[in-house]
Amino acid sequence: MALDTTTPTATSPQGSSRSVSGFLYRHPRVRLAGLLTAPLFWLVVLYLGSLAIMVLASFWSTDSFTGSLVKTPTLENYQTLFRGQVYWVIAARTVGIALAVTVIDMVLAVPLAFMAAKVVRSKRIRYAIVIAVTMPLWAGYLVKGYAMQTLFINNGVIDWILEPLGLKGPGLGLAAVVFSLAYLWLPYMVLPVYAGLERLPDSLLEASADLGASAGHTFRSVVLPMLVPSLIAGSIFTFSLTLGDYIMVKIVGGTTQMWANVIYDNVGVANNLPLAAAAALFPITVIVLYLLAVRRTGALENL
Amino acid sequence: MSDLTPPAAHETTAPATSIAASDVMPPAIRLRGLRKTFGSVVAVDSVDLDIADGEFLTLLGPSGSGKTTVLRMIAGFELPTAGSIELTGVDVSKLPPFQRDVNTVFQDYALFPHLTVAQNVEYGLKVTGVGKSERRKRARAALASVRLEDYGDRKPAAMSGGQRQRVALARALVNCPKVLLLDEPLGALDLKLREQMQVELKAIQRDVGITFVFVTHDQEEALTMSDRIAVFNAGRIEQIGSPADVYEKPATEFVAGFVGTSNLLRGEAALKVLGNEGVYSVRPEKIRIVDTETVIGDGGHGADGTIAEVVYVGDATRFVVNLDAGGSLVALQQNSTTSSSDVAALRGTRVRLAWRREHEYRVQA
Prior knowledge:
The complex is a heterodimer of chains A (303) and B (365). Chain A has a single domain (85-302), classed as MetI-like fold. In chain A, 72% of the residues lie in helices and 1% in strands. Chain A contains 13 helices and 2 strands; from the N terminus they run H-H-E-E-H-H-H-H-H-H-H-H-H-H-H. A two-stranded antiparallel ribbon of chain A has the order 1-2. In chain A, strand 1 and strand 2 form a beta hairpin. In chain A, helix 8 packs across helix 10 (215-243). The N and C termini of chain A lie far apart (54 Å). Chain B is α+β, with helices and mostly antiparallel strands. Chain B folds into 2 domains: 2-257, Rossmann fold, CATH 3.40.50.300; 281-363, CATH 2.40.50.140. Chain B has helices spanning 67-75, 117-127, 132-145, 161-173, 191-208, 219-225, 243-248, 253-258, 267-274, 340-344, and strands at residues 29-38, 41-51, 56-60, 82-87, 90-91, 102-105, 179-183, 211-216, 228-233, 236-241, 264-266, 279-282, 288-290, 300-312, 316-323, 328-334, 350-356, 360-363. In chain B, the strands form 4 sheets. In chain B, strands 6-7-8-3-9-10 form a 6-stranded mixed β-sheet, with helices on both faces. The A-B interface holds A 201, 203-204, 206-214, 217, 221-222, 225-226 and B 75-77, 96-98, 102-104, 106-108, 110-114, 123-124, 127-128, 171-172, 175.
């Protein structure tokens, strides 16, 4: 009967989709399995699986004559890395660059995000700022890399600007790497800070002023403490992205080497995959330690 | 002239901005020609208001009537477009909030979530450089005054709405401001708690003797707590007066409608019943319902009609009576002897409404 809606037949499309919904409603475990199978496969097999193989491979070696893999467990790669002074220098430099990039991005992001979230009243201008900040994410990495190169290169844009003042830019090298990476990862710092500031009620700023605090005091004792989780969330991006970068340093770094270059060169030119695998564990270890440290601050809930 | 009295005649020299040092204490707050526009919207328009020292003044009005904007201008969160704000005779119109001796209790309490309750209360003292032990002592006393002395170590998130409200009050009062501004502080509480806090707030205000400026849209709250009420509508003050004045003698149709039940006789009906054109307000509880044979004496007025609606509200019953003369009036009768089943049967009954002449007020349309 056309009007009988109380007993939908299993053959009607609506009826079958409803009965599937009904089945899933009554069996929450099946529902969960349906939702999680694909992402779990992705995570466990493709990501954690390959990571495990990499850890395993870091204990292998290569036959120096044929270049083929020798799958006998050895600590040779780790000994090479720990004993080579050059590796310590590169590791320290890489962590230093990552810290510098993170600090620069924090210093740039906080006033910018504060401007967008709290000072500008017009929604349009606010969104314009946010879009302007995220715009560089739409451009290709290499485009931005070579744009940076034209800035820092000898007789490049920075040199042109500084020339009338009798100054010269830093040229390609460490400083160029730090500034280029800071530029590259800035959106990843601005966005969590902006989100954090948006969640910060205006009334808290007013309450602080009401209780006698100047703007600077309010910033130090209310805004910054409440932004700590957002800053840490942003720093996870800027720090880890910098640790793993090896392209920007090739474009604007001159002869500077970062840790990821060690990995890349051993994968490619040196054809020593086991050593590359061992080297790859260094940034992973640093990041894991960092994540464990910040987990206490509650920042991970702000990602 | 008092303008010329030498300042030496007074123990404290008057601030330079108030040359007009008179023998009378300047009011705690004096607003003159206060105006605020947001773009093309006029939020507050030519507000003049004197608030006496130690007074509990309520700014009452519907949302968007400008009452909160006035409060925010007194606090310094908004700069007036025109007009002046004086605190005890000193013009503070252009001063930032942190240079004004007022404190605010916010609608959302605005407690700092990263600080403990005690740290929240101490915040203002710390900013102004009060020493640590003095700070501790005063914060504890302030928390004790709102009965939260044992909650100093908690974070605001671990407190109930009513407790947070009291912390916000302690945080403001601990600074001993000249004026305390309260922006709908009870709005988020449930009815029972709200009634309890009304009594407590009033008691605290009597104890500390600080001027309270209280913003609310709840007319009952305004009537129970205030020394005076300023009724706001569309950015202007419609009437200022004691709760009894505002309730019993509404100056305008708006006040009559916003404070209490709108109960108006107008036009044709007013002419027939009262013998006068114009808009008149009669409060529902002043109206007695009598049978149609009752003779009404010289001191009163009466109007016949039919009971159209009977609303049982527990302690009383509200009768909506359609008048033969046109329009309708609401009469409120205590249920001292009747009950819900009795009153429900009265719908459709012909009755005569009677009230005393002194209870009808002509209001501005």
